[in-house]
Design goal:
The protein is of the alpha/beta class and 251 residues long. The chain has a single domain, classed as Aldolase class I (TIM Barrel). Helix content is 42%, strand content 15%. The chain has eleven helices and eight strands. Strands 1-2-3-4-5-6-7-8 form an eight-stranded parallel beta barrel, surrounded by six helices. Helix 1 packs parallel to helix 11. The structure holds 2-phosphoglycolic acid (PGA). 2-phosphoglycolic acid binds next to strand 8.
Length: 251
């Protein structure tokens, strides 16, 4: 079985002082673990945190990227820049980007293309709102968001990404999906991957995100189609994040 991927999403949090302490504790805590560990940090700190992670088994990622290649796009950050400063992964289509910045499925696909062209692995986020879940629309919404991306990729590209199922109602609320609720959606996503990629469907990891913490991680990771986690709030606490990584290492 592939190793689980535990990805931290620091969102718009951090400072030089706090980052140094947090990243060092995570590097030390992750040194002997059997999962993949990734820190997705704010743009200004990629260089700092990248330096701290050098030579460790913790990878560096960003939280977004531009859909453009280069040029007169004030304030934007390109895939090539992220690669240049040592990122291996980039989050794309997080619900906070979709909600606060109006990111559409088409924009998400454009960003996936840019990321892959620069040899970055996109972590594509999908998930339903509370209203959509209550209306019984979860599967349609989630599979629709995935199809919007997969429809624009050839099979080789479709294998080179990570999916993150993040129910919007679970993000930052302390109300994680139960393992069974998450597994049901992950199983539907796996089904869509099998339909698209056949035997290669296992190449695409499906992370769960939304109020993952030290107490619920092990039960989520025990589910057959949960391949890791995208962790927001709990990733700012070294002890909690390492506990999640330990759970992801099967210990
Ligand atoms: P949370 O955030 O763990 O704080 O719920 C997860 C995410 O938004 O990726």
């Amino acid at each position: 079985m592939a190793r689980k991927l535990i990805a931290a999403n620091w969102k718009m949090n951090g400072s030089l002082g706090n980052n140094a302490a947090l990243a060092q504790r995570i590097v030390d805590g992750a040194a002997s673990l059997a999962c993949e560990v990734l820190l997705c940090v704010p743009y200004p700190y990629l260089g700092q945190v990248g330096g701290l992670l050098a030579g460790s088994r913790v990878a560096l990622g960003a939280q977004d990227l531009s859909e453009h290649d280069a040029g007169a796009y004030t304030g934007e950050v390109s895939a090539a820049m992220l690669k240049d400063v040592g990122c291996s992964h980039v989050v794309v289509g997080h619900s906070e980007r979709r909600k606060y910045h109006g990111e559409s499925d088409a924009l998400v696909l454009a960003k996936v293309h840019r990321a892959q062209a620069a040899a970055l692995v996109p972590i594509v986020c999908v998930g339903e709102s509370r209203e959509q879940r209550e209306a019984g629309d979860t599967e349609r919404v989630v599979l629709g968001q995935i199809e919007a991306v997969f429809g624009g990729l050839d099979d080789a590209a479709a294998r080179r990404l990570v999916l993150a199922y993040e129910p919007v109602w679970a993000i930052g609320t302390g109300l994680a999906a139960t393992p069974e609720m998450a597994q049901a959606v992950h199983a539907s996503i796996r089904g869509a991957l099998v339909a698209r990629l056949g035997d290669e469907a296992g190449a695409v990891a499906i992370l769960y995100g939304g109020s993952v913490n030290a107490d619920n991680a092990a039960a989520l990771f025990a589910m057959p189609d949960i391949d890791g986690a995208l962790v927001g709030g709990a990733s700012l606490d070294a002890e909690a994040f390492i506990s999640i990584c330990v759970a992801g290492s099967g210990r």
